[in-house]
Amino acid sequence: MQLKPQDFLVALKLVALGDQRWTYARLAHELGLSASEAHASVKRGLQAGLLLQNHVAVPPQLAADISTHAAMAVQEPRAIYRVGKKRTRRAGDDAPADNPVRPHAHNLAEFALHGAKYAFPGVRLPTAVGLPTSHSAPAFAGIFAPGSMDFVWPHPNGMVRGIGVEPLHPSVPFAATQDAKLYDMLALFDALRVGKARERGIALERLQALIDPDAPKPRKKAARG
Hints:
alpha+beta, three-stranded mixed β-sheet
């Protein structure tokens, strides 16, 4: 099994969605993928340890009832069958009791910060018009003075001219415009791929905070002298 760029994209999207309920259809629509691609990406993400399977907890009373029913079924003659009442389908039943998977925050952050740039290296392209990324994106707003060379994902609807950066996946420019938090994470990841030392340092800190906010923050060394 080999991770594909869209697998990392899907994992970041699940971080952006947080506790929101989602379906594979919604995931695919907001990322510009097909439902089958989204499903395959989730499967690979689970295998790689970037995602975790959700298990719906069974209420204690229901668990006891199931246990009792199972014990009674063992003692009953095989010819006797119990037929449960058919459940009436209501509006809203399409929503799952819980999302099938969730991001493995620690593993995903570790991969995003230290491994993904090697698995999916940044490729600079000729100057183009597109959507700002890396230090030029809103995720870095107010940090760098105007006038520095911009980085962009080439896109026909873009309004910024700069050095082109090949996006993680062809659907990234579309997906970024659908979700501000996802846009921030993708731009920060690009800073790790193509940015300078200062940009990479800022991206490491901010991307960590977005993916795994509960991770212990490293202690800053006291200034000497």
